[in-house]
Every structure is written in C-alpha cells, then in structure tokens.
What we know:
GO terms for molecular function: transferase activity. Keywords: Transferase. Helices cover about 50% and strands about 5% of the residues. The chain has helices at about 1-5, 40-50, 55-75, 95-100, 110-125, 135, 140-150, 160-165, 165-175, 200-210, 225-250, 250-260, 270-295; strands at about 10-15, 80-85, 105-110, 155-160. Strands 1-2 form a two-stranded parallel sheet. A two-stranded parallel ribbon has the order 3-4. Helix 11 (about 225-250) packs antiparallel against helix 12 (about 250-260).
Amino acid sequence: MLQKILATSDDIATVSEPWLMLPLFSYDERMLMCSAYSVKGYRKAVRDILGSLPCGEDDLFAASRAYGEHLYGLLAGEGRYFLDKTPRYHIISSHLMRTFPEAKCIFLWRNPLSVMASISRTWKKGRWTFAGYEIDLYEGFASLIESYEGNQERVLALQYEDLVADPNRWLGKIQTFLDLPEGSFKHELFGAVDLGGKMGDSTGAKEYQNTLSEDSTARWKQAFRSRYRKKMGAEYLQWIGAERLETMGYSLDELMEQLTAVPATGLGVMDYLAHHRGKLKDRSQSRLSKAIDRYRGNGGKAVRLN
C-alpha cells in the first residue's frame, strides 16, 4: 500500500518486488539457502576471496553498491529515487544499509498480530500455518529491529495504523524526509497504480483499492477466533518482548489485552494440526536442502540424513 502511494509521486520510480540484492549476500552463514551448487563450498570460496581483497569485505560491499546503483539507475529513468520494496530484504537489512550508506530508509511497522493474520489470509487461504513464512516472523523481524536500532539517524519509522488514520500527516513527514515538494503524493489515487510484475500482494491490492481505512487495523481479530490461535499470538508477542515492541511504538500489555478480549469460538484442533503439519513440512524441506547441498559437495556420493 505505502509503495503504491509513494509511486504516485513523479520523483519516485518503483516496480513490484525487485529481489535484486538478495543473492549478493548469501555468503553470510546467517542466510538460509539452497542452490544448484554447494553452498558450503561457495561460502568457503568467498571467504578466501575476501581475504585476498585489499579492503576485504568493504570491497565486496562497494561492488554490490555499484551493481545496485547501475540497475536501480536504469529502472529509475527520470525519477529522483528508485524505491525497492522487497519483503525478504528484512534478512539482509543490515547488509543493505551498509551497502547504500546514503540511501533513505523507511521502516513501516505493523501490529505483529496483524502480520500473523495477514500471512494466514493472504498466503495460506485462512489456514493457521506459517510454513515458509516463519523466517519472516522471527529471523527477519529480529534483523529489522537490529538494523533500525543501529541506523536511526537515517531512518524514518512510522506505524501502519498511524498512516491509515492520518495519511496527510505521515505522508507530509515522508515528503520532508525525502526532500520532496508539498503535495507530491496523491494517496487517493494509489489504487490505480500498476506496479507490474508477478510478485507482490494481490490480496491487499484488491482490498484497499483507493481507500485508506482504519477498519484494516482491527481485521486481525477475525483471525484469532480459536484458543489455539490466541495462544500462538500470545507466545509470539512474548517472544518479541516489551522492549522490541516499544522500539516499534507498541505496548506489550496493550496488545496482550486486545488479544485476550477477542472471543474464542472453539479450541482450534484443526488450527493445531495445520500449524504442526506446516512445521513438519518446513523441517523436512530444511533437511532435504542440507542433504542436497552435502550430496553435491561430496562429488555426487550418497550422504546420510541426520
């Protein structure tokens, strides 16, 4: 939604989800990765190269910056800015901020319970499973908080709930942050913006159309109608913790109170089964990915799954 609003400015060019920078930092062992080649061998080779470069990892970041600036420049055309909104960039957010030290970064926080509900509704057809998306809820979230705390002087942070409640105020702050003229954004027209491409949230695009509505801020409650879902929501909030929630502008106590007030219509046995089936799927895929990597790195010889 915010991406489309910003795209109404003639000074900002963007496309749906570029994903351009993700492969560049897969040498980092914190990145989970499966490939057609040995990831272990690749990372070993890159570490060797970094040791041979005059400035080590700084040279790699400089090359990554040249790659990104060249492609972004081509995509931007006459625009002053190119906006890259790629969801999984949360994994490499610290790398990106180091790669582009002069870039303007906007952090759009959202109620974590809304994020859980959105994943279920958008990508799982309402089923209570987060297979393939737990990295967004956990590793990605922790990475974003760390990146924000280390770079607050160059970041504009806002809450989704505040944006839809008072768009003129917050879009004005973004205009100032980006040094754009007043009236650059026409939020009433964002529904007509076509970002192109096959990536992105088509569900959100259909829901919002041209309207910024506060109704969307309470929609998460519809997804927490069983005791099991509420239990998972509470556990997730506790995992995030009061300190990190406060960094985002939320209160743990208030969110827990709101969650507790949602009426549960059942135990959620099917939710329990869907969730654990998804976890088994994620675990089996992770083991298979590791086995494939070891198999290929072992000259095509059989390896033991353990």
